[in-house]
Amino acid sequence: MKKYKVYIADDHTLFRKAMVNLLRSFDRVVEVKDAENGKELLTLIKYEEPDVAIVDLQMPIMDGAETCEQIIRRNPNVKIIILTMTMHDSAKYILHMMELGVHAFLLKNTEPDELEKAIYAVVEKDFYHNDLVAAVLRKNVTEKRSGQRPMFRQAELTEREKEILALICRELTIREIGQRLSLSENTVRNHRVNIMEKVGVNNTVGLVKFAYEAGIVN
Questions:
Q1: Which residues form the signal peptide (predicted)?
Q2: Of 60, 101, 141, 202, whose CB count within 10 A is highest?
């Protein structure tokens, strides 16, 4: 079973060191490094890429949003998990960073089991879909429909494509979707590519966001 390297950036020393110890206790985390701000994290990544970077949203010197933009541009293979204090304070930033391509969002009071699950999900499934993300996306859809935001793009998907997209949003793998729908993995993979082309996105995060906006997931 594959094991992963995880880096964490957070300016609160006690919290960061406690997180390092927690991460090292996970069965499939083989290496952990920590940084006290985004600039230090980028330096670590420059010398050796992790599988996952856990980034605090609010940090001095270089905050979480700017740090994520830099990682996505320079190291697109690194999966990013954002840590935030509250959904209410961070909703607009979460939406913006979803559009950038951040892979998961967790509250700082998240249970250890969920953190571990999120780490594995972002590497193996490209996205972690939890209640925090769902709340932000539902709020986004409500604002679009009330005219507070521009309406979402339209895309004509077949019933099969909608079915596959809904299962992607439930974090099923290509293999699991194929087994569920009695399709080959190649067929599911081709459907996924076609959906992304129709919707105009290039990652799973974009697919999930579209699914909410189009009413495929609610």
A1: none
A2: 101
